[in-house]
Amino acid sequence: MKIIYTEKISSTNDYLKKLKKVTEDTAIIAKKQTGGRGTKGRSFICEEGGVYLSLLKLYPCSASQSFSIMENSALAVVKTLKSFGVEAGIKWPNDIIVNGKKICGILIENVFEGDEVARSVIGIGLNVNNPIANEIKGIAISTKEVLGTKLDEKTVASTILYHLYLPSRHEEYEKRLLFLGEEVTVITEKSTYKAIIDKVLPNGNLQLKDGTVLSSAEVSIR
Ligand code: BTN
């Protein structure tokens, strides 16, 4: 596996997506991103001091198991945080939450070939020593705030990469899931409503108590 370090880049996900003739898994770790991207076309604030990395995995799994990439990535971050003394939960599908606030966002971009995921770009943005902008202080948190001390960003990044190669199970993901059995706000393109979460199915869909099944592409929860 190849690991690239860079001071500044637009987006680590974009860098890996543009690579041609990749013959081995490749990771890129950036000190700063100027065009960090989030899910659903949103931008992602990337101040210096955070951990911004992407990993390009070649042929990680079959297409039918693609949600396992999300589960594994979320658990890799949760386990990394735990190893540094920070207890975290997962907000479906893969936001990482500490003390009710988001500490990490994950953007996964897959390329499918037939029944296989031919490439998966797993992008992780974790608030470590970076300052949290005033406008998002109520909803975002960093490890520095939780621990009251700084962590070495390269060590955190390599710990995440290590965990991304460990196997994980759906049951572990379920154990870390927040809001199960609780009322949340479901937001779709057309409407916003309150519902109780029943479970997350192994294919990644969210099942509500009334039996409705939703995919993360269609909805978000709050
Ligand atoms: C989200 O919460 O919406 C997902 C945020 C993902 C951010 C990471 S930072 C590293 C990688 N490069 C990007 O441009 N985005 C991901």
3D architecture notes:
By secondary structure, the protein is α+β, with helices and mostly antiparallel strands. The protein is globular and about 50 Å long. The strands form two sheets. Strands 1-2-3-7-6-5-4 form a seven-stranded mixed β-sheet, sandwiched between helices. It has a five-stranded antiparallel β-sheet with strand order 11-10-9-8-12, with no helix packed on it. The model has no long low-confidence stretch (mean pLDDT 96). The chain is built from five helices and twelve strands. The N and C termini lie far apart (37 Å). Helix 2 crosses helix 4 (153-164) and helix 2 crosses helix 5 (170-176). The relative contact order is 0.15. The chain binds biotin. Biotin binds next to helix 1, strand 3, strand 6 and strand 7.
